[in-house]
Design goal:
Elements: H1 3-21, H2 25-36, H3 61-66, H4 85-99, H5 101-112, H6 116-122, H7 129-150, H8 158-162, H9 169-183, H10 189-201, H11 205-218, H12 223-232, H13 239-245, H14 251-270, H15 285-303, H16 308-311
Length: about 325
């Protein structure tokens, strides 16, 4: 079987495991659906004509955290192996996650039971990226639940409270902790994604967009991060500019096809003409967007011929 096809399956399986372990069930479900939609007869990953992936696909998170050993000349002392700061940090994260595995397992059980405050208590002394994400995500969701529970007692809508700005001390505290870790280079891709969520809830849309793109370039197989990015994209933004900031793996095709369908193409059609402000008001934008949409769908249809996500595009 083609190694590219094996890599695709490995990426999706890794995504299911990583997202499930962090409570990102929607992203895990999406990845599992694509995994199960691969054709049983498919033995190779198709390479559509004229649709190259402009950047190498992102390695799985496990591979990146563990770090593949560099090949050195025979006789080279392993103590002399070059190790940069990034690799040392990933190794440290891997050790912390391993040492904190039992507490994280308990915390995840509590998380699944929606006992968010207990999750925070169990993980309060943990420093690994998985524990940090789960603890702060539980704290974030606890705030969301309280807003929902209190909404019936106030004339203010849930949506208005969810974008409370700097006056929301709980959100600000979560943001400050994430930013402190980020400034120390101690935030992994999922932590940066959570930072994007917090920025969005604080009404800081541009910061949320930037954090989403950072997260996806660190680890692109989190579908929830792609969907959050979609909500942060300005309809006046150039598609070429956005596309140039995205990682180069196959996930970009799913995102761009979905975004063109949900955001750009409907706005053009609803205007009754092909002119739109999305790409600077060019008269052939609708046709260009339609062509781009077809290209992305071509890639997805060949990779996932049985995917309900792809069929529904």
């Amino acid at each position: 079987m083609d190694s590219g096809f094996d890599s695709l399956k490995s990426q999706l399986r890794d995504s299911v495991e990583e997202c499930t372990g962090r409570g990102l069930v929607y992203a895990a479900k999406w990845a599992a659906e694509q995994l199960c939609s691969l054709s049983a007869e498919t033995s190779t990953v198709p390479k559509p004509t004229g649709v190259p992936l402009t950047k190498p696909a992102t390695p799985t998170l496990k591979h990146r955290l563990r770090g593949a050993s560099r090949q050195l000349p025979l006789g080279t002392d392993t103590e002399d192996r070059p190790r940069d700061a990034e690799q040392e940090r990933k190794d440290q994260w891997s050790r912390l996650d391993s040492n904190e595995r039992d507490k994280v397992t308990l915390a995840k059980c509590l998380f699944d039971m929606r006992e968010f405050d207990r999750v925070r208590h169990v993980l309060q002394e943990c420093q690994g990226p998985r524990a940090v994400f789960l603890g702060l995500y539980a704290r974030y969701l606890s705030r969301e639940r309280k807003i929902s529970e209190n909404s019936s007692r106030s004339n203010e809508s849930v949506e208005a409270k969810q974008v409370a700005g700097e006056s929301d001390s709980e959100l600000v505290a979560i943001r400050d902790e994430l930013e402190a870790r980020d400034s120390d280079s101690d935030l992994d891709a999922f932590g940066v994604y959570l930072l994007a969520m917090v920025h969005k809830s604080l009404g800081q849309k541009q910061l949320a967009r930037t954090a989403c793109i950072r997260s996806l370039n660190m680890y692109e197989y989190n579908w929830s991060a792609w969907q959050l990015l979609e909500t942060c994209v300005d309809r006046r933004e150039s598609m070429d500019k956005l596309s140039g900031e995205l990682p180069g793996g196959w996930m970009r095709h799913a995102f761009l096809a979905h975004m063109l369908l949900e955001v750009f193409l409907p706005s053009s059609n609803s205007n009754g003409n092909s002119s739109s402000s999305t790409n600077g008001g060019s008269g052939n934008n609708n046709g260009t967007s339609s062509d781009e949409f077809s290209v992305h769908c071509q890639v997805l249809e060949q990779l996932f011929p049985q995917s309900q996500f792809v069929i529904g595009l």
